[in-house]
Amino acid sequence: ITLVMAYESAGNIFFSESTDGIVWSDEELISDGLGNARDPSVEYFLHPSDGESGAFVIWEESAGGGNGYRILLRSKEPAVEGWTGIRIIHIDPSRRPSRATPVISADLTAWKGPDGIMLRDLADAESDAVSGTDAASEGPVLDYYSRPEGKFALSWIQPGTGVLWRLGTFPGPIWSPPRSAAPSPPGEPVSGADIALNATGSGCIAWTVPEPGGWTIRYRLFDQSDAMQTVSRLSQCPIPGGEARVPMLEHHRQDPG
């Protein structure tokens, strides 16, 4: 088993790994060290090209001088015995501020663009705008839950509406219609969504909402037919604190993707 972790400190991105969750390797600086990086996302999966497992880290970096931002990627592969060079996934020169919050699942990545959520298969040279999203859409999350079949799930927060999600299939992608997992009552801000599915397509969506005394994490389960159960809340809530807690979902599936 290999566990991986990436985090931001003082505008730089660091990586560490472990085989038992107790002893971790020394942190490795993987960004350029100039202090302009933030919001890393990390993935560890089997590379289809060579059958080797390796880590991918994606993050956002300010281009400096009001020149927009860049989405950058770096991978650690046994085949090259270390880290590859920093790869530019996307450049936005619009000079409009944006918290892109890029995410990665297997070799699929998504981020918030100035006009909506963007999606890219790392094997392709082009990025695709996700229909049904707009400039207000934020906080994308991904789960490439059955890579051999090209099946993935995308969720995002639509302010004033709640948490939306849809399924996609490659090649294409071919999309299912957007669905609402968490209708947002008037005045209730939603933050910190995440989604995870197993290889059959059943799964869970979780998100955070404020309530007296702190924050509550709510979630919904759904099955292969997309039938959704009622909204539930974690029994430990509300969680005190001034900053919204971010739920993170994970699972242990054995499919080859």
What would you note in describing this structure?
This protein has 257 residues and is mostly beta strands. 0% of the residues lie in helices and 50% in strands. The protein contains no helices and 21 strands. The protein has strands at 3-9, 12-18, 28-29, 37-46, 53-62, 69-77, 82-83, 87-92, 103-105, 108-113, 116-121, 128-129, 138-146, 151-158, 162-169, 174-175, 179-183, 191-197, 203-211, 214-222, 232-233. Strands 4, 5, 6, 7 and 8 form a 5-stranded antiparallel β-sheet that branches. Strands 13, 14, 15, 16 and 17 form a 5-stranded antiparallel β-sheet that branches. A hairpin with a 2-residue loop joins β1 and β2 (12-18).
Amino- and carboxy-terminal Cα gap = 16 Å
Main sheet makeup: 5 strands, antiparallel
Taken as a percent bin, the fraction of beta residues is over 45%
> What would you call the shape?
globular
Low-confidence stretches: 253-257
* Main structural class: mainly beta
Order of helices and strands: EEEEEEEEEEEEEEEEEEEEE
* Cα-atom radius of gyration: 18 Å
User: What is the overall number of helices?
Assistant: 0
The helicity comes to under 10%
Mean pLDDT: 83
Number of strands: 21
Summarize, please:
By secondary structure, the chain is mostly beta strands. The chain has strands at residues 3-9, 12-18, 28-29, 37-46, 53-62, 69-77, 82-83, 87-92, 103-105, 108-113, 116-121, 128-129, 138-146, 151-158, 162-169, 174-175, 179-183, 191-197, 203-211, 214-222, 232-233.
